[in-house]
Amino acid sequence: MKRLILVADLASDDLSKQEIRTAVCGFAKDPSKVEVSFIASYPSTIHTAYLVSQIVETEEQYGRPLETVIFQNTDTRMQSTTGVDEARGAQFIIVRLASGMYLCGPNAGYDFSLVKEKVTNVFVYNGLDKGSQFRSRDLYSRVVAYLMDSLQDDLDLDEIGIDQIPDLQGFYIGHIDNFGNIKTTITVEELKGKHEYGDEVSITINDVTKKAKYVSNLFGGIPGELVMYPGSSGQKDNRYLEISAWRHFTEKEVTTGVHAFNTPHPGAKIEIM
Question: Can you list the pairs that 220-224 forms with residues at least 24 positions away whose Cβ atoms lie under 8 Å?
Fold first, then answer.
């Protein structure tokens, strides 16, 4: 049986996690072999997309993608501005990557956008877009269990075009780690020819504009200096950039990247001059 990684904005709630685990076990062939890990996302499809893409990257480099299913569930109903019937949300899709790994979840916002270039097939499972406010437990868990048991051929699926996954345009905060380092969706390639190490770069986030030195790593400046640098996430040959400040964490006031921009949330837009 394949193991499951769940990335969702509800994954910080212990009750929700247990209910989903119970439902998946209930549909699995052998519940004693069910292995589930949870990754909590901010209620932002950009944040979920970043988490999913980094988990995929790590699984494909170091893990066992053919033995892993990723299930994401962040659907903030951004497409709706009025009330919806039966808690209707985005369509449930199943995505197959070139590595053979399966991902699934609502095709809401940008949830799958940062793995789009790895996608070979997209399938839709109709009828799971409405009927429950807790779709992960009541509707999705059966399909997820089928994927974990490698029974995807038994599912009633329709193939749709990869273009149904939207492209993410512009630059955003992808994630903020426990040190307050801002992980962006900006890649090293996107700065090539525009900035070199040692340059000062003007960055606007959360209506706050700061200058950061472009350096080769977090420790490439001096303690307390705001810097931008190739981080630890993204493709090995084209890392995502991070924004932060090297700290010893012995200072009276410890401020890192997130504090410099008045504590923005994942998914916030980034502008670079």
Answer: 221/245, 221/246, 222/246, 223/247, 223/248, 224/251, 224/255
In this structure, are residues 52 and 72 in contact, taking their beta carbons and an 8 Å threshold?
A: yes
- Residue 135: which pLDDT band, with cuts at 50, 70 and 90? confident
Q: What is the pLDDT of residue 84?
A: 54
**Could you tell me which residues come within 8 angstroms of residue 21 by beta carbon, excluding any fewer than 6 positions away?**
34, 36
Rounded Cα distance, 32 and 24, in Å: 11
Residue 265's pLDDT band (cuts 50, 70, 90):
very high
Question: Which domains, ranges and CATH numbers included, belong to the chain?
Answer: 3-164 (3.40.50.10790), 171-272 (2.40.30.90)
Q: How many CB atoms lie within 10 A of CB 192?
A: 10
The angle at the Cα of 155, spanning 152 to 160, to the nearest 5 degrees, equals: 90
Q: What is the value of pTM for the model shown?
A: 0.94
Helix (H) or strand (E) run with residue 15 in it: helix 14-27
State the angle between helix axes of 141-148 and 14-27 in degrees (0 to 180), rounded to the nearest 10: 60
Question: For residue 44, what are the contacts with CB-CB under 8 A and spacing of at least 6?
Answer: 9, 74, 76, 265, 266, 267
Strand partners, 171: 270
